[in-house]
Specification:
Elements: H1 5-10, H2 12-73, E1 79-82, H3 84-97, E2 100-105, H4 119-134, E3 138-144, H5 153-160, E4 171-174, E5 185-188, E6 192-199, E7 202-209, H6 214-229
Parallel strand pairs: 2-3, 3-4
Antiparallel strand pairs: 1-7, 2-5, 5-6, 6-7
Helix pairs in contact: 3-4
Amino acid sequence: MALNWRKIWNDPVWSKVISAAILVVLGLLATALISDWEAKFISLVKYEVRLSVWIIALAITAIIIIPILLVRKSGSPGLADLTSKQWFSEIDQQIKDCNFARIYLRDFAHPDQFKSEHRESLLSFMRSLAERLEAGADIRIIAYHTSLSDKSGLDWLSSEITVNKKALDKIKLIKNQPTSNASSMYLFDSGAVLYNRRLQGGHSYHIESLQGSIVHFLIERGFNTSQGELS
């Protein structure tokens, strides 16, 4: 026997039961849809939050790194790559102004053996060095000289310094380097440290300011210790 849905719907009891059932079903469907939308919304928010974090991190990194790169690119006096001419000129100026210096020379040639490329700069440096040693400046030098039987920069200084001969005692020639090395190094009381490095096909020239840094003190202490140990 077929159900009379119109009669059932018009019945006051059954109509309420059917309405309640419909509401329950609609509620369940709505809950399911809302939960799905909520999950998608939360997932989207989390993704955008993660994306925002990455964007902020990259922005902060750029803010920190870019100025550093620009400073280095512009040739900051704190850490600069120099041409050989600029490097020798800065060394000459530092020698003229200093009352204190610690110098390691990779090659302490006599001026007669200077290469033409840097001859004038090296001669200027040697003259300034002789003047400061004669004046009693606290300058100590460790110099590697491949053949102690050949003339060296020390021989030239001996002929130039006529009064303060004791200053020459602060210059130590060595025939063996303490380690594999192709660099010269200059440490001045201004806080400046100048050094060069041999690279493939040539040299690079550098200056750093260590004023107010313990690194300057440690280099000095290491130099003074090495001067007593090297032979």
